[in-house]
Amino acid sequence: MDKTEVLPKLREDFRMQNKSVFILGASGETGRVLLKEILEQSLFSKVTLIGRRKLTFHEEAYKNVSQEVVDFEKLDDYVSAFQGHDVGFCCLGTTRNKAGAEGFVRVDRDYVLKSAELAKAGGCKHFNLLSSVGADKSSNFLCLQIKGEVEARVEELKFDRYSVFRPAVLLCDRQEFRPGEWLLIKFFGSLPKSWASGYSVSVETVVRAMLNNAVRPSSEKMELLDNTAIHNLGKADSSL
Fold it and tell me: How far is CA 107 from the centre of its chain?
């Protein structure tokens, strides 16, 4: 793209298109920050949350956010929730420790894939998937294997544009306490930034990368953004 184009102009051009967006996983750390940033930037004419429960918001900025409550075990009964969205962000995910191996596979693969299928059928043009560094369907580690598998299977749906984000350790003030993550965050927080950025990234940087990527034109059918690309794009504030 023309390097003279800057983010403010790209955002303004994007707003003029009056696109609609849905977010899966808005109750999680990344989804929560993503929703806040989307509203602050006023990028979409309609914002819809798709989740298993209705979220409560008290701030005025959230008053026009639509919510679709679905049963992820029976998504075929909620086809209408996935219709009419131009862009979709999937931040669904759990952990093996929390849900067990079977539960993890169900959420991170089955729920994600079925949601993507319904979104594609409902007219979604640009699907964004939050994955993980090291995702590989051939991995011996269940988490990375499932992440890699769902990446590949969503690609087979052939969205007009499909963006996969593979951040390293996510740095955030998680509402749900996870001891292992807390130790990693403390560790990376003690390292020089130049070192820490290679193995970690803040949720805010991931979200900004997602949105900066969404507003810039692309001829690529499938985009894979690793941790370095996320850092670069998430910190771009003047030009791309």
Answer: 15
The pTM of this model reads: 0.88
Nearest of 226, 93, 75, 221 to residue 157 by alpha carbon: 221
Number of independent structural domains in the chain: 1
Q: Could you report the per-residue pLDDT of 139-163, keeping only the tens digit for each?
A: 999 999 999 999 999 999 999 999 9
**Neighbouring residues of 182: CB distance < 8 A, sequence distance ≥ 6:** none
Query: What is the C-alpha to C-alpha distance for residues 163 and 225, in angstroms, rounded to an integer?
Result: 8
* CATH of residue 15: 3.40.50.720
Helix, strand, coil share of the chain (percent; to 5) = 50, 15, 35
Residue 106 covered by a domain: yes
What confidence tens digit (pLDDT) does each residue in 73-90 have?
Answer: 999 999 999 999 999 999
DSSP 127: E
CA distance 19 to 100: 38
In tens, the pLDDT along 179-227 reads 544 454 454 455 455 445 567 899 999 999 999 999 999 989 999 999 9
CA dist 47 → 83, 92, 221, 230 (Å): 13, 17, 24, 23
Sheet of 161-165, strand order: 66-69, 46-51, 20-24, 87-90, 126-130, 161-165, 222-225
